[in-house]
Write a structure and sequence with these properties.
By secondary structure, the chain is mainly beta. It contains 2 helices and 21 strands. It has a 4-stranded antiparallel β-sheet, with no helix packed on it. Strands 5-6-7-8 form a 4-stranded antiparallel β-sheet. A 4-stranded antiparallel β-sheet has the order 9-10-13-14, with no helix packed on it. The longest helix is centred in the N-terminal third of the chain and has 9 residues, at 2-10.
Length: 246
């Protein structure tokens, strides 16, 4: 099996020059490549299934190119979603195509925020949009097909940021650092070293402290690998484990 996977990596079903696709995990934990016309799934080899119609392609033509800069995938309640990277448009895989289910616009107000599932709802914390970094949490309410705020009365609110390191443990969203500098600006590598969590039960942010300065972190638009409740960060010469609970 590892050999087959290795060989498949040498012969991916999309060319290196093609950038308009999403590489993701299916609800069955198989690797998939999503294009605007259909989906590749790796079983014993890459198998292609075209979508039932071109409705997904038409929606994308009016929104954005299908790539990881513009969209992300997430699984909730055994359903696969494609969501604009900043909240807004939401698609769900049904009847062999991705159907848009939201009543929102392409606002990109939380680009690079922390994406997670809580109480079977898709949430985004922080992010960047409209020339400011966000410090709030939103969730997609499928009852009204709109994004809404998670309201709180917290006395402490961490500064807004994007690209944080994060994980959800029980009813708490743990956050480590993040960035507040814009790409191309003088302070584009400016980052935070604080650690805090948002308690969904008490509806408040709680400050934990500062990260050990000897630990090197790495920020990206993607979620870091997770084993149990620990986040793993891979650098060139070592592996860093972030144990939020301890």
């Amino acid at each position: 099996m590892p050999l087959n996977i290795l060989l498949s990596q040498l012969n991916l079903p999309v060319k290196d020059s093609v950038q308009n696709f999403l590489f993701a995990k299916s609800t069955l934990d198989t690797p998939i490549i999503i294009t605007k016309n259909g989906m590749f799934e790796y079983l014993s080899e890459w198998e292609y299934t075209p979508f039932t119609d071109n409705s997904f392609k038409k929606e994308l033509d009016n929104l954005d190119q299908l790539n990881h800069a513009n969209f992300f995938t997430i699984i909730n309640s055994k359903e696969l979603y494609i969501i604009s990277n900043g909240a807004g448009p939401v698609f769900v895989f049904k009847d062999n195509t991705f159907k848009r289910i939201d009543n929102t616009s392409l606002h990109k107000n939380q680009f690079g925020g922390a994406r997670f599932i809580y109480n079977n709802k898709i949430h985004i914390y922080g992010g960047y949009g409209f020339w400011s970094f966000k410090s709030f949490i939103t969730f997609f309410d499928e009852n009204i097909n709109q994004w809404d705020l998670v309201y709180n009365e917290s006395k402490y609110t961490p500064p807004g940021r994007w690209k944080p390191i994060y994980t959800l443990i029980n009813d708490k969203l743990y956050v480590l650092g993040g960035r507040s500098g814009l790409a191309g600006s003088v302070d584009q590598d400016e980052s935070f070293s604080d650690v805090f969590y948002f308690d969904f039960t008490d509806k408040e942010f709680v400050n934990v402290g500062k990260l050990n300065p000897k630990i090197r972190t790495s920020y990206s638009l993607f979620s870091h690998p997770k084993i149990e409740d620990n986040i793993l960060i891979l650098n060139n010469t070592y592996l860093t484990k972030i144990d939020f609970k301890n």
